[in-house]
Amino acid sequence: MTSQAVTWLVLDRPQGDLEGQLCRAIRERVRAGRLGAGEPLPSTRALALSLGIARSTVVQAYERLRAEGYVETVRGSGTRVSTARPRPLAGAARGRAPASAGKAPAESLPAAATPAPRALPFQPGVPDLKSFPAAAWARCVGGRIKSLRIHDLGYGPVAGLPALRAAILAHASTARGVVAQADQVAVFPSAAAAIDTLARVTLAPRADTAWIEDPGWPRARALLLRAGAQLVPVPCDDDGIDLSRAAGAGPRLIYVTPSHQCPTGVTMSLPRRLALLDAAQRHGAFIIEDDYDSEFRYDARPIAALQGIDTGQRVAYVGTFSKTLAPGLRVAYAILPPELVAACHADMALRQGDVPIHIQAGLADFLNDGHFRSHIRRMRGVYAERMHNLVRALTQHCGEWLEVADGGGGLKLAVRLRDHGVDDRRVVQALAERGYGARTFSEFCLAAPVPGLVFGIAQGTPARCEALAQALAAILRGAAQ
Questions:
Q1: Do 301 and 259 form a contact (C-beta atoms < 8 A)?
Q2: Mapping DSSP to helix (H, G, I), strand (E, B) and coil, where does residue 403 land?
Q3: pTM score > 0.90 for this model?
Q4: CA distance 231 to 234
């Protein structure tokens, strides 16, 4: 492809987000096989001149595509379509499919309650609450409370306020490459509530199989078990979930965290993503894509969501504002496959777990007015520095005992113990006695527990990271004696 042969690449300037449009256009042609492996792309300067846009826009678009695995840079040869890309995924065109009621919600089994963790520094799962944009939030919510109309105070749509659903879709489309209609968006009080609903409407109790990442999020595991799933742990490595190592019956549901694997932090490679979508098509399975903190990526731009490249409409995309803003807001959402919309709405109507209307209305304004985008941009820099602080301190003081991940994104850092004979539960307990929070890595594992620690980085100032690392080194030194 040369700069004179891009007549198919037309940008809609009034729509905005030229970088995203450029990414989507090239990505779709690569996926469809109309740009072959190894085919050269125009230089950033030539393509910018051809399209009449800033060169920086093309540079950033190429960087995103390179991070996602669609293109590669060859020294002396410029940018080309990746030669490692597998064959295009077969599937239906991405049109609207009629919604169906799906399966009736399954009776759930009781699950063991997990006590809430103590609020200690470095406890994972909590953002920096001191950085919450309280003034902007108060203006948005306060203004909505003052202007609520009579019909706002009644029973609203079960899937959430239309204005909020539209604002969520606009954000997810621009920031994450999601492709959907507003009626596919459903508002939930938590990501766990969204996963629970999806599990209930897709799984027949004690009959259907669910594949889940190993290691993976313990709460998702508990929710799938409560829905009656036969769980099959599928190992993860540096490229994400490895379906070649899946055993047992084919799945009805697959739970993954592809953008920032929980808890390892790795990003699922493009070949693994395509293999996952292919498996879902073959088995008639649905995928839950839990995209809990992908906005915070430090070594590159956030990559596009799995949902955006799903031609078969098998992916349910789950997002949350608990990690990006604050868990106390109790707002999450799911972008549902059309086939599951009616069944999920029916389940939600039975649950009566609505987010308060003034919170929904205020959040819609918060998104539409650009406050959320500004907060993410600001906190990405803050969290990148704090992740660096923690990685540096643990490597310096504890490298003898720990395998420290690179910390390329997210609000938590997983480290594994080199000595598998150490009990990570005792290490976490010893840290708590010294005033520091952590979770055991082993609790995320299903088939074979691996000892390690999972830290939150939101409060990782240099002084705190140094103190934590020194305390942990003393604990590990004592355990080794």
A1: no
A2: strand
A3: no
A4: 10
